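Run log // design_07
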């Protein structure tokens, strides 16, 4: 057992945080993937990977240091590169670091206070996102365009008979620029306004939940099985007069 924390002096080169923007895609494909911090040594392929969970804690230290304490189980501690092994049992047998740390601790030292705080914010955002995503189960990819991804979204609680009813979708919007951030804020504000029960319209999809952080916005919207008006026009061309009248009266 190792009580002293792992000290890394150049985290921007040797440590990487799993891409937060890929959480939606990863969870959709694998179902159980978790965000993690990974330490890659300069020489050799030995590395350590610690998963970011609800119990991950941080403490800002002097001299631009950041203490990260993980609450990882033995199965979550990877001390070598599992990609080099076809069999997980073979990997664990040949792993050159056999010890397992019950509560691993990392100390990252940064070049500046701003850089340290930026990393702390990223890790906290990841933890917060995991808590929020824990309410839902994600299904197949519905649509994807530049900067926007839409996937099926189910409530975490399954029905008693094991079947799940698709009631909503999760919309992921990238917000890497000031213009994109403004767009996300405006879209959330508009959905909040039109999702007001007092002003709710049968032909307008409600926003059921939302979460926003640096770089991304996540919206839970009602699911429309029949598609939307844009899909109808794209597939069938211009609407005839009777169809236009029917849709206009509904609006």
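design_07 sequence
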């Amino acid at each position: 057992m190792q009580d002293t924390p792992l000290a890394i002096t150049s985290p921007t080169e040797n440590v990487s945080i799993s891409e937060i923007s890929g959480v939606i895609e990863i969870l959709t494909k694998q179902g159980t993937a978790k965000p993690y911090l990974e330490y890659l040594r300069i020489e050799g392929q030995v590395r350590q990977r610690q998963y970011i969970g609800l119990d991950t804690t941080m403490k800002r230290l002097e001299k631009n240091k950041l203490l990260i304490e993980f609450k990882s189980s033995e199965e979550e501690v990877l001390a070598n590169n599992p990609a080099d092994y076809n069999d997980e049992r073979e990997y664990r047998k040949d792993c050159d670091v056999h010890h397992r740390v019950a509560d691993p601790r990392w100390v990252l030292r940064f070049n500046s206070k701003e850089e340290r705080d930026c990393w702390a914010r990223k890790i906290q955002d990841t933890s917060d996102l995991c808590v929020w995503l824990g309410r839902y189960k994600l299904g197949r990819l519905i649509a994807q365009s530049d900067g926007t991804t839409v996937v099926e979204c189910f409530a975490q609680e399954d029905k008693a008979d094991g079947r799940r009813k698709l009631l909503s979708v999760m919309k992921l919007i990238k917000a890497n620029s000031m213009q994109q951030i403004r767009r996300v804020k405006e879209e959330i504000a508009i959905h909040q306004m039109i999702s007001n029960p007092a002003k709710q319209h049968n032909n307008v999809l409600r926003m059921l939940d939302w979460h926003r952080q640096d770089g991304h916005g996540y919206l839970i919207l009602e699911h429309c099985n029949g598609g939307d008006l844009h899909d109808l026009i794209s597939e069938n061309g211009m609407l005839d007069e009777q169809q236009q009248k029917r849709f206009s009266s509904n609006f």
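The longest strand covers residues 136-145.
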